[in-house]
Amino acid sequence: MNRRGFLRTTALAAGAMIFGRTQSAVAASPKRIVKASKFPVGSSRKFVAANGAPAFLFRTKSGVFAYSAICTHQGCTVDYLKAGKKLVCPCHSGSFDPFNSGKPVAGPADRPLDKISVSISKDWIVQA
Ligand code: FES
To answer: What ligand 1 atom has the least distance to the C-alpha of 72?
Structure first.
């Protein structure tokens, strides 16, 4: 290998290492959802999960938890009805209990909403 070839190969390898390091650093960082101090016990809110899908976040005395807002029946987007404390699907009247592992309580769905792993890290609620 001549000098020019050596320099080109070295530059490409260094670029690949830097790009790879940047990509892994981005992938490893948790997604911030909301500041914990702005989301007290008893709060709920919709957010966009790391995969781009809608989701719901809850905070109770026992901690924080979240579910995908994609209905497990046929994929419509559920909404949280605070008065009834249920995640309700508008398509076929499916209903899920966010305070009981997202289990279906009414309608045609036969499995719970998908859980999303969240935690409190410093002053942020993050998706792991
Ligand atoms: S798509 Fe949600 S109940 Fe059918």
So the answer is: 2
What is the rounded CA–CA span in Å between residue 121 and residue 128?
Answer: 10
**Is this model's pTM higher than 0.70 or not?**
yes
State which of 70, 87, 88, 92 you would mutate to test the pocket of ligand 1, scoring each by most atoms of that ligand within 8 A of its C-beta: 92
Q: What is the average pLDDT score of the chain?
A: 86
In order of their start, the domains of the chain are: 31-127 (2.102.10.10)
| Separation of CA 59 and ligand 1 centre (Å) | 25
pLDDT digits (tens, 9 = 90+) for 47-104: 999 999 999 999 999 999 999 999 999 999 999 999 999 999 999 999 999 999 999 9
